[in-house]
Write a structure and sequence with these properties.
Blueprint (H helix, E strand, L loop, with lengths): L1 E6 L8 H15 L7 E8 L1 H12 L7 E9 L10 E9 H11 L3 H16 L7 H31 L11 E6 L5 E5 L12 H11 L7 E6 L9 H8 L6 E5 L5 E5 H4 L12
Parallel strand pairs: 1-2, 2-4, 7-8
Antiparallel strand pairs: 3-4, 5-6, 5-7, 8-9
Helix pairs in contact: 1-4, 1-5, 3-4, 4-5
């Protein structure tokens, strides 16, 4: 699959992370719904640009957040090779994404990814004109976004792993902690010649979040190297349970594959200190 992203909005910078997340969003939406030789174009524009498109092609004289223009044309292949299917164009208003991210309480990049998924499903023939069709489309979008969130968080943990300081054990760990609103705090393990002073990646991420004033956590990804995943240690589980007893845990290996567990499943009887005021 090929996802071509063009930024026509000069006031908002499209960094590597945003471009990667949009690409993942489109590819996730296409998975199972189109063949491997598919190309989708994503244009990131301003309100005026999408307003003009909305007026000319949909007869609606106002800006909107996302538009989809199906193409469904196939480019000839080489020899007997099948051609590339040009599925169509998704156009996203970045100012609208900024406004909606603030309204919905999640990150700007996540809102752009959500709009990319929505537009891609339109290219695949989904619509929301009738209630039944809208429910079907929303269910598919929710499933893709849930999987996308876990994948992106696992990748952020894998990136944090690269900064780990583990000269004694050689066991490098990265963690990425997702909090309400879409913000992510990362951490890595930091060892010390005095082993008891070592800091786990999970606790490093928690401390970073708490230092920034955050007390609610949504999910935590833990990434390690090799072909097997690793569970957080008991101390980390206890620290996490202080803030989020029902936390989702995404456990990733060095190949980018992961499993999902819950904190309450791994630590069903967490220690609680009940204070009684005299």
């Amino acid at each position: 699959m090929t996802v071509a992203i063009s930024n026509l909005q000069e006031t908002v910078t499209v960094d590597e992370r945003l471009a990667s997340l949009v690409t993942m969003a489109v590819e996730s939406a296409l998975a199972g719904g189109a063949g491997p030789r598919v190309e989708v174009s994503v244009a990131l524009v301003d309100d005026d640009y999408i307003h003009d498109l909305n007026r000319r092609f949909r007869g609606q004289d106002r800006p909107t957040d996302v538009l989809a223009f199906p193409m469904g044309e196939e480019e000839p292949g080489a020899g007997d090779e099948p051609g590339v299917l040009l599925l169509g164009d998704v156009v996203i208003s970045l100012p609208a994404a900024v406004r909606q991210a603030a309204e919905y309480g999640h990150g700007f990049a996540w809102e752009v990814a959500r709009l990319a998924v929505h537009g891609t499903f339109h290219l695949l023939g989904y619509d929301h004109e009738r209630d039944e069709d809208a429910r079907r489309m929303q269910e598919r979008e929710d499933a893709v976004l849930a999987a996308l969130s876990d994948t992106e968080l696992a990748e952020r943990a894998g990136a944090a792993l690269q900064n780990a300081y583990a000269p004694y054990s050689g066991f490098r760990v990265g963690a990425a902690l997702l909090v309400p609103g879409g913000r992510v705090f990362t951490g890595c393990n930091v060892e010390n010649a005095s082993y008891g002073l070592a800091v786990c990646a999970e606790r490093a991420a928690v401390v970073s979040a708490v230092a920034a004033g955050v007390r609610e956590f949504t999910a935590l990804a833990v990434a390690v190297e090799g072909e097997k995943t690793a569970l957080p240690c008991g101390a980390c589980l206890q620290v996490l349970s202080e803030f989020a007893p029902g936390l989702r845990l995404i456990l990733a290996d060095g190949r980018g594959e992961f499993t999902v567990r819950t904190l309450s499943e791994l630590l069903p009887e967490a220690f609680r200190l009940h204070r009684t005021d005299a």
